[in-house]
Amino acid sequence: MMLAERGAVVVDADQIAREVVEPGGPAYQPMIDRFGAEIVRPDKTLDRAAIAAQAFAGADALADLNAITHPAIRTVMAERIAAQANTDNVVVVDIPLLAEGGPAAYGLSGVIVVDAPVEVAIQRLVEGRGLGESDARARVAAQASREDRRKLADVVIDNAGSPEDLARQVDDVWRWIETLPGRSG
């Protein structure tokens, strides 16, 4: 993440989502209870693709997935944020589903939304994560709209352009972050 390269401590909700479903994690057994033993690989880890196939196939399954994982993710995120409370570190909380859960729960000083057109997002999921196009479209459709995410933003980064343009925008955002309350400059 470009903000980490500039010195930010990143609390990544996607990474934490992977952690809470690891064997022994707080969401591991509830996931098996809800989605079945077929989501467990021989090494006892959960098969994320098998979970996604079920979860993105219907609203009820997705709601169940969220009800199992989101509380565990929020708890770990809160712990990691609290661990930075007495530091001078810039803490960036990377929450892809912020619009769905609302920013108020996190006590954020500001909200940065990284935005790209839907077709660009789908293409990146297909090429970068190896998803099939229909799976990528289902994931994007299950999320808040671009408009809803942008409404939450104090700053929007347009991620549809070149890497150089993205880097320039991140530099601008870093300067903005340094002006937020609680920053000594």
Quickly list its features:
185 residues; Rossmann fold
Describe the structure concisely:
The protein is 54% helix and 9% strand.
Description:
- With 185 residues, the chain is mostly helical.
- It has 2 domains: 12-90, P-loop containing nucleotide triphosphate hydrolases (Rossmann fold, 3-Layer(aba) Sandwich), CATH 3.40.50.300; 95-180, 3-Layer(aba) Sandwich (Rossmann fold), CATH 3.40.50.300.
- 54% of the residues lie in helices and 9% in strands.
- It has helices at residues 2-5, 13-20, 28-35, 48-55, 59-82, 98-101, 118-129, 133-142, 146-152, 163-177; strands spanning 9-12, 91-94, 112-115, 155-158.
- A two-stranded parallel ribbon has the order 1-2. A two-stranded parallel ribbon has the order 3-4.
- Helix 2 (13-20) packs across helix 5 (59-82) and helix 7 crosses helix 8.
- The protein is globular.
- The two termini are 21 Å apart.
